Amino acid sequence: MGVAVGPLRFTVPEYNKAGQYRGEMAERRTNLVVLFGGRSAEHDVSRVTAAHVLRAIDTSRYDVTAVAIDRDGRWMLAEDAMAALAVGPDALPDALAVAGPTTEALPVLAPEGAGGTASGDAPLVVAIPLLHGPFGEDGTVQGLLELAGVPYVGAGVLSSALAMDKAKAKEVCAQLGIPQVDWLSLRADRIPTDVADVVGSTLGFPAFVKPANLGSSVGVSKVHDAVELKDALELALSYDEWVIVEEAVVAREIELAVLGNLEPRVSVAGEVIPAAEFYDYEDKYFDDRAKLLIPAPLPAEVAGAFQEMAVRAYEALRAEGMARVDFFYEEEGRRRGPLLNEINTIPGFTPISMYPKLWQASGMSYTELVDELIRLAVERWERRHGHRTVRNERLER
User: Fold this and answer.
1) Taking residues 29-44, what's their average pLDDT?
2) 261-298 burial by CB neighbour count: b if 16+ within 10 A, else e?
3) Is the pLDDT of residue 27 over 60?
4) What is the DSSP secondary structure assignment for residue 349, as one 8-state letter?
5) SS3 string of 71-114?
6) Phi, psi of 26 (to 5 degrees)
7) CATH H-level, domain 182-247: superfamily
8) How many CB atoms sit inside 10 A of residue 100's CB?
9) Beta bridge partners of 187
10) DSSP β-bridge partners for residue 36
11) Chain-wide mean pLDDT for the chain?
12) 42: helix, strand or coil
């Protein structure tokens, strides 16, 4: 089924009248390994995301192994989550508990699954990493899955690492001419003693201070003077050795969802109107006080410009699978128009999260979205693993 979104057009998976997927994977049994929790400061967000993704999984088509990673990096089978899922989606809590018998990563990711026995007709295994932040969204788990030969949902190693590191992502996008707010990147051991003067003269106050390798607005502060800047740098540096200082702009916050591998598709644009001074952690995941306007009230040509820029940024960072691309829309002051803020390769999937809401407004339900992400994971794995990993002497002659 074709769906037009601004100047672009994409195809969503086909379902029959009973809501069953009719695509190429319809007859193939798949074991989904859902990874959640993790060692980052976004551990709690991951637990909420995982609960809602599990609710959307069609258990008549998929077998599910839920695997929790605790704050110390231990892997364990989330038996309570799997038992609740067997009862029915409504039996799942709003956030999954990180508890259960410990296990090892590679046996869980084997085709036979945890505790199973391999056979010639073992089901396909696809991993769904729902690990926000470092040690999950930054290419580390993606590298493990590549070594294990397991298809997985979301961006690959390079893209995950680039998008996680805000400083490097900004540098790559700047090289390709994608407009952004002005920023400084600082390393813990190279912060100048006159940093307040540097920020004041290059960016001005107020400004935002962020850990370079984190998301969900964790460790983010808005600073108005040198005293607040000192405290904000101390907070950000408690999470990462690199920090970003960005100019604060008077602008609207616009977000788009991108989906796909070689031919990415983009959703309608949505607008966030924060309840707090900026769109912070509580506002994103718990308070539900921010207003989400979907579609964003934008002229068609402006919405189309955001869509095209979202795809440019997605491809610039070699993203695949999915990403939420966040922008500012500066209509006042310097009037620079759309400005890229950042890309999130494992966006929030809670009921109040923008990514699934944007796709729902674009004609794709939550369950259809999960199915499509799984299909894209397999498609990419089959494409990439068609390349040789050893020298081919015949072709080199």
Assistant:
1) 92
2) beebbbbbbbbbeeeeeebbbebbbeeeebebebbbeb
3) no
4) -
5) CCCCEEECHHHHHHHHHCHHHCCCCCCCCCCECCHHHHHCCCCC
6) -60, -35
7) ATP-grasp fold, A domain (3.30.1490.20)
8) 18
9) 242
10) 68
11) 86
12) coil
Written as one letter, the residue type at 351 is P
Q: Supply φ then ψ for residue 172, to 5 degrees.
A: -65, -50
- Tokens 């590679």 label which residue? 106
* Confidence check: pLDDT of 351 > 90: no
In tens, the pLDDT along 240-290 reads 999 999 999 999 999 999 999 999 999 999 999 987 665 455 555 455 667
Alpha helices in 253-365 (DSSP H): 281-285, 300-316, 354-361
Q: Could you give the CA distance from residue 297 to residue 188 in angstroms, rounded to a whole number? A: 41
Structure tokens at 188: 């813990």
Residue whose tokens read 């295994």: 125
**CA distance linking residue 202 with residue 197, whole number of Å:** 8
What is 252-364's CATH topology? Answer: D-amino Acid Aminotransferase; Chain A, domain 1 (3.30.470)
| The dihedral sign for the CA sequence 153, 320, 286, 38 | positive
What's the token pair of residue 175? 């090289």
Task: Supply the pLDDT for residue 298.
Answer: 97
In this predicted structure, the answer to whether residue 11 has a pLDDT above a threshold of 80 is no
Residues 241, 188 contacting (CB under 8 angstroms): yes
Residue 112 has pLDDT above 90, yes or no: no
Distance CA 292, CA 276 (A): 14
Q: What is the residue extent of each domain of the chain?
A: 25-152, 182-247, 252-364
- Residues 380, 22: Cα–Cα separation, whole Å: 19
Report the Cα–Cα distance between both ends of the chain, in Å, rounded: 47
Smallest CA-to-CA distance from 241 within 344, 165, 334, 158 is with 165
The predicted-structure confidence for 194-238, as pLDDT tens digits, reads as follows: 999 999 999 999 999 999 987 667 889 999 999 999 999 999 999
Domain 25-152, what architecture?
A: 3-Layer(aba) Sandwich (3.40)
Q: Is 6 helix (H, G, I), strand (E, B) or coil?
A: coil
User: Which DSSP string corresponds to 195-254?
Assistant: HHHHHHHHT-SSEEEEESS--TTTT-EEE-SHHHHHHHHHHHHTT-SEEEEEE----EEE
Q: 120: which 2 tokens?
A: 């010639």
**CA atoms of 259 and 380, how far apart (whole Å):** 13
